[in-house]
Amino acid sequence: MKVKFAIQGMTCSSCQAHVEKAVSKLEGMRNVNVNLLSNQMVVEYDETILDNDQIIKAVVDAGYGANVAKPEKAKNVKNEPQVDNQEAIQSMKNRLIISIIFWIPLMYIAMYHMFYEWFGLPIPQFVKNAFHGTENAITFGFTQFLLVLPIVYVNRNYFISGFKKLWKKMPNMDSLIAIGSLAAIIYGIYAIFRIGYSLGHQQIELAQKFSKDLYFESSGTILTLITIGKFLEAKSKGKTGDAIRKLMNLAPKTAIVLRNNQEIEIDARRNFDGRYRGD
Q: What is the pTM (predicted TM-score) of this model?
């Protein structure tokens, strides 16, 4: 039996390989073909051993979503509607805008002294009063922490997906993003506590050292740049998918066949046995 499935949650070739590997392990599975571009999977299996629900369960256990793709709208295993490409692109765009809005002041606060050293740009007085010097080290670090939180929140899918795949021993690119950005945040929090302890015990040099060891801007930069890449990828993928669908729509809906020396018009979507292609 040959069946087509719609797959949700794939973002890279590693995801494609994980889905294919998870489904291929099922007993009775003959052939698996996963297409990352169209987010679809075509499988051929022995229906006496295997069924659609078992295949969907294998995909979900691997950390992705799946539903049977048929002419009639099928229900997702989690009762969720299939996400439209334009909605996904708009959602990614909103995440990107919010990330950039908070990333710009985060980078400026973290690196304003470098702008002064490299480009000779004057440091505004309010920046000096609020963030400059060891006496403002706590404010300097905590402000960066507050600015990175919205970036982390809007891009939380990287952490949810990444650690979920890591827990299942199938790490992907999201796992690397989550580990890298979270490590920078955790160390930054540790550095803030050390700054507070050092200032309270008059250990000025130690406070100065840890005020230079804050990496919140690194976490924000990782998440923002990855989101830029994901947004561009989603747009390109959407355009390619639309182009493929338009090409498919150019295919003739009917065909003329010769049967018993008579020309008969039939539905081109049907096989010779009367079933629709892909059923």
A: 0.71
